[in-house]
Design goal:
Elements (H helix, E strand, L loop, with lengths): L1 H6 L8 E7 L2 E6 L2 E7 L4 H15 L6 E2 L2 E2 L8 E2 L5 E7 L2 E3 L5 H20 L4 H7 L2 H27 L6 H22 L3 H12 L3 E2 L8 E4 L4 E4 L6 E2 L2 H15 L4 H14 L4 H12 L2 H11 L8 H22 L5
Parallel strand pairs: 4-11
Antiparallel strand pairs: 1-2, 2-3, 3-7, 5-7, 6-7, 8-10, 9-12, 10-11
Helix pairs in contact: 3-8, 3-9, 5-6, 5-7, 5-11, 6-10, 6-12, 8-10, 11-12
Length: 337
């Protein structure tokens, strides 16, 4: 398979020296630099936008390091193999992975997304161009209905389990824990007031962009200076920037069992670089109150073989249940900020 992928590079002005593997891609060392070749499953429409965005961000290289897409000789972003699969070539930079046990890396990740959000706001991409790729009304409607849709799914899953005669350990755990997590879910849904809907509408009207998949897997550190580098902009779009912060924040806080000191430090560090409004904090609280991890576990159960569940699913559920009170306690103390 690697040989087939490497043959695609005949379409590029690159002189290959050696190749290897990295995170689902072929890593190619060339005279011109290092590149990755990876199958692309997204839309060409979004890829055009992604290249535009990355090129604009690259103009501020001293501040933020980002991906760079490499076009083939025909000037195209994608190259097809003999089976019709499409591949993309990106520049690659030697870097180390994010260490979730390192608080310095954690804070660096917060600073990076705050700087990126400021840069998004300052990066002038014409509104007419953005409207070519995104539909603001659809995004707003999706955000407003998100909790309502998920809560309906939770009820259907609970009803299915409740009506089962022979329940396994996972299902017993769900029945025992469901009411308090569903209460959290309804609380989050109730926070989607007219004021929050207006905040979403106003924020989207600013055409602010988001990374769309911001987590520690997409953060690398370059060289001895440890400059942060963010990758994987495949889901970048117009959106609520606090959603990026939430995605990163929740993952870290789950690993640290909702440590209050760390959580407040992260929020304060973001605020130091990009000022947070009361509405931003309210949105973050609303997202944190919703039991997303619990919903994801149950949703995975619903879409899997219910007669055989991996032990890791049971362990994930147990951990989520055990951490619930710490999560709620932390959220209730965010007002201190």
């Amino acid at each position: 398979m690697d040989e087939l992928v490497l043959s695609l590079l005949d379409n590029y002005d690159l002189q290959i020296r050696k190749s290897g593997r990295c995170r689902g891609a072929v890593l190619v060392h060339c005279e011109e630099g290092i590149y990755t070749v990876r199958e692309y499953m997204g839309s060409e429409r979004h890829l055009e936008f992604e290249e535009l965005l990355l090129n604009r961000l690259a103009e501020h290289r001293n501040d933020i390091f980002v991906d760079k897409i490499f076009r083939n000789r025909e000037g195209e972003l994608l190259t097809e193999d003999v089976y019709g699969k499409k591949y993309i070539v990106r520049a690659f930079y030697p870097a180390r992975d994010f260490d979730t046990k390192n608080h310095t890396d954690i804070i660096a990740g917060v600073r990076l997304i705050a700087r990126l959000h400021k840069r998004f706001h300052e990066t002038e991409i014409e509104h007419e161009v953005l409207e070519k790729y995104f539909f603001k009304n659809h995004i707003a409607d999706t955000l407003v209905r998100e909790f309502q849709k998920r809560n309906q799914e939770l009820k259907r899953i609970r009803n299915y389990i409740r009506d089962k005669n022979n329940k396994n350990e996972f299902e017993y755990l769900v029945m025992k824990s469901f009411d308090e997590f569903y209460e959290d879910a309804l609380r989050a849904e109730s926070m989607m007031t007219s004021g929050m809907k207006q905040y979403i509408a106003d924020t989207l009207s600013e055409y602010d962009l988001i990374h769309g998949n911001y987590n520690y897997h997409n953060i690398l550190f370059l060289g001895d200076g440890g400059k942060s580098f963010v990758t994987n902009f495949e889901k970048a779009k117009i959106g609520i920037q606090m959603k990026d912060m939430y995605d990163y924040f929740r993952k870290i806080m789950e690993k640290y069992k909702w440590d209050e000191k760390l959580g407040h430090t992260m929020i304060q560090e973001y605020h130091r670089i990009r000022k947070l409004s009361d509405e931003d904090i309210c949105y973050l609280k609303m997202k944190l109150i919703y039991p997303e991890k619990y919903w994801k576990i149950l949703n995975h159960y619903n879409n899997s073989n219910k007669y055989w569940l991996p032990d890791k699913d049971v362990q994930k559920l147990k951990k989520t249940i055990a951490d619930r009170n710490k999560r709620i306690s932390f959220i209730n103390h965010i007002n201190r900020f």
